[in-house]
Amino acid sequence: MEQNVNYYVLRSIFEYLNGLDLSNASQVCKSWLEVAEDEKRRRGPSCVIRNRREMKSYKNWDDIKKEMIECFAIKPALCMFSTNSAKKDSHLQKCHCKYLPHNCYTVSLDTESSSLENENLVAMYFPKIPNIQISTFTFNMHPWTMGIYCEELKTLFDNSLNNADQLKTVIEASFDNDCHNTSCWILLCKIYYGTSIGFDLLEHFYKWFPRKRISICGGIVNHLSVCNSVHNSRVCKNMAECVAILISGTKMQIWTVSLDEMNDNNEDIEDKLKNIKEIVKLKKHSIIFMFISEYCSSDMDNLELIMFEYFPRVPVVKYLCNGAFAGENLNEKYVQGCNDFENINTSVLMILTYD
């Protein structure tokens, strides 16, 4: 009886701890570890947003980052920081590593916005949990050799990724026909060279796994960088042309929606979102990734409010970008259109839900 009382007392206390304090509490003793693990299973992905006007109350950028990182609910395996600013600020280029736990991949994306009112900093934290696997791949044009270098694989590929068999070997377990995993890609491309790398990757994904459903969501941004201590080397604010994030799990489901202002009127957009609401079956934890094109009208700003109306308990991570893309097995014409910026009026969202 006393043991049960202690459990529920600890559980009620642990409910108010942030991710870092909860992780520390789990190391005190075996009984605390049990309570902490149960509390971790209760928590899912989280998102924190700060407006630039709010930031002015802080003394410096480090204070802002520290405060936002302290908000994460569970030890993250993946962090995505996003800024949209009217001009490139030097403080956006600083490192996050000293505030984050070891083995956490952090990607920062920035889109130059023409609107001062919408200047925000968005932080998304995806938890480290056993039933969800996250693989990350950072690509850059090699500085003195013709080719594309992958930081995680420590490998140089040719410019069209035609010799990327090593990459295929690493990811094929998630796309094997006998595998019960559901997988999705978040693809982030820096404007110009990054889009070329990104869509070469897409072409190879479909070529390698023609019978497997491949869900894609992503955007084109002005600046892209990573902080990464996962692969035995601490890479701080390393600039990237393209970042590919693979998320897979056995009890996970994915839905993607593409909204095109050129072809979809407000009624069409509303119908698409209503249809999604009807077919989506949310599991224990969920998150919505939303990539909004900078070139879309202000009507697209209401998407976040509409999604909140349909999914009030699901965190929505909104990224401003120069162009967006989403879907399953995107055809060659669509991919080429994104690469040529013909689809800059497209905004997309991806709903990810898991137990």
Overall number of structural domains: 2
Largest sheet: 7 strands, mixed
Kindly report how far apart the N and C termini lie.
30 Å
| Overall pLDDT | 77
Shape: globular
- Which percent bin holds the helix content? 25-40%
Task: Give me a quick take on this structure.
This protein has helices spanning 2-14, 19-25, 30-42, 52-55, 61-69, 165-171, 193-208, 266-279, 303-310, 332-339; strands spanning 46-51, 76-85, 105-112, 120-127, 132-141, 148-150, 155-157, 182-190, 215-221, 223-228, 235-239, 242-249, 252-260, 285-293, 316-321, 323-328, 346-354.
Overview of this structure, please?
This is F-box domain-containing protein. Keywords: Coiled coil. Residues 252-279 form a coiled coil. With 355 residues, this protein is α+β, with helices and mostly antiparallel strands. The protein has 2 domains: 7-42, no CATH class; 132-354, no CATH class. It is 28% helix and 34% strand. It has helices at residues 2-14, 19-25, 30-42, 52-55, 61-69, 165-171, 193-208, 266-279, 303-310, 332-339; strands at 46-51, 76-85, 105-112, 120-127, 132-141, 148-150, 155-157, 182-190, 215-221, 223-228, 235-239, 242-249, 252-260, 285-293, 316-321, 323-328, 346-354. Strand 14, helix 9 (303-310) and strand 15 (316-321) form a beta-alpha-beta unit. Helix 1 (2-14) packs across helix 3. The radius of gyration is 20 Å and the shape is globular. The mean pLDDT is 77.
